[in-house]
Amino acid sequence: MSPFLHLCQQTIGANYVLSEQDEMLTYLTDQRQREVGKALAVLSPANSEEVAALVRLCAEHQIAIVPQGGNTGLVLGSIPDQSGNSIVLSLKRLKRIRKIDAANNTMTVEAGCLLAEVQAAAQGADRLYPLSLASEGSCTIGGNLATNAGGTAVLRYGNARELCLGLEVVTAAGEIWDGLRALRKDNTGYDLRDLFIGSEGTLGIITAAVIKLFPIPKSEVTALIALADVNAALGLLSLVQEHTGASLTGFELFSDFCLQLVHKHFAELPKIFSRSHPQYVLIELSSSETQEHTRTQLENLLASALQSGLILDVVIANSLSQAAAIWKFRELISSAQAREGKNIKHDISIPVSQIATFISATDTLLQTAFPACRMVCFGHLGDGNLHYNVSPPAHQHANDFLLAQAQVNRIVHDSVHRHHGSISAEHGIGALKKEEILLYKSPLEIRLMQAIKEALDPHQLMNPGKVIGVRHETTSLD
């Protein structure tokens, strides 16, 4: 064993230093099973002080660090590269809920707490932590903040950045910054908190956070609505926002092909509508009003939309179990697509007003380049975040289609850029898109990001090879 790993054992205990390949494998493999990295070891500290001590050791020995939470990311941001010169620093043992302040509507949690555990702790204090993701049983708060995770309730509550008031961070020098302030107003200089949120562990390691809590809604009403096209969905969004205001919690769009895939691969699910429709929207309202008031409000609104022809059909859940069943159709789209076969995924955001135009234009471009390719388009329409995925034609082998991934990505991302959008809405950049962002950010923006990286991590040891790639000449589309 190397002197470095021996020192790590002395710092956190031999049981928490893994160096055998079979022991490390789950930490080295990305969530979609596409890549397996290499590492000197996986280190699992128990608290912020041990994290800081390990970072100082790594700095002394010039060992790169890949911070890792639940390893549920989709852009190769939480696994090491193939060099084998880095360590994975797992934060799973930092799982204490340090404080719940119900009067201040805040909770102080460590980075390794599972999102589902934080939701349950908030519930136990008669409060709501509204961040909701499909991976909430395995993703961690630290990972959520490091990637600025979104989810299904962003429309009302905001993403992870907006749900965080303060952070504790171990810097690249191994110092602990205590920024755990439970304040909603603090105008005392640069906002370091926002700098670390969304930085994917490239500037420092988030070890704890103060997060916002909310009163638990007294009522929730869920409906699934059939529409003729995306323009109708946008019209419905405007109508619902006008009449329900902050009660609108979720507004999810998915196409008929998405629904067909779910029924194909989860045949046990019941049919919701007697016939197919081009597009569907899942709406959720939550309110401090009574269940009867909220349901009547949505019923009246949708009855008017149905009469005017804006929507084609609607089903409103009569119970929590029916609401959960309706949500399953939305939540199982990714799983259904995975069962259908390999595909090319895009996590993008577009100004809401441009979404219908974007989908129409980009579908046409892809069908021209790849006739009969199948579009699996779904997402959080209310905040402009689409999961715009492309599956191969039914007659083509997926591996053959994946050879064209760079061309597909260029068509999609160029169209996103033309529509003033972003090529990463909620999954981050990681290693997967670090070169891609160079095409769509100005040279100035890249230089500013690099300057921040160099200032906070001068030895380039924090999650190297992620987020910031090497700039090439004349790559910007601006």
TrEMBL record:
The lineage of its organism: Bacteria, Pseudomonadati, Pseudomonadota, Betaproteobacteria, Burkholderiales. This is FAD-binding oxidoreductase. InterPro entries: FAD-bd_oxidored_4_C, FAD-bd_PCMH, FAD-bd_PCMH-like_sf, FAD-bd_PCMH_sub1, FAD-bd_PCMH_sub2, FAD-linked_Oxase-like_C, FAD-oxidored/transferase_4, Oxid_FAD_bind_N. It holds the Pfam family FAD-oxidase_C. The keyword Flavoprotein applies. Residues 35-216 form the FAD-binding PCMH-type domain. It comes from Undibacterium parvum. One of its GO terms (biological process) is respiratory electron transport chain. Its cofactor is FAD. GO terms for molecular function: catalytic activity; FAD binding. Belongs to the FAD-binding oxidoreductase/transferase type 4 family. Keywords: FAD, Flavoprotein.
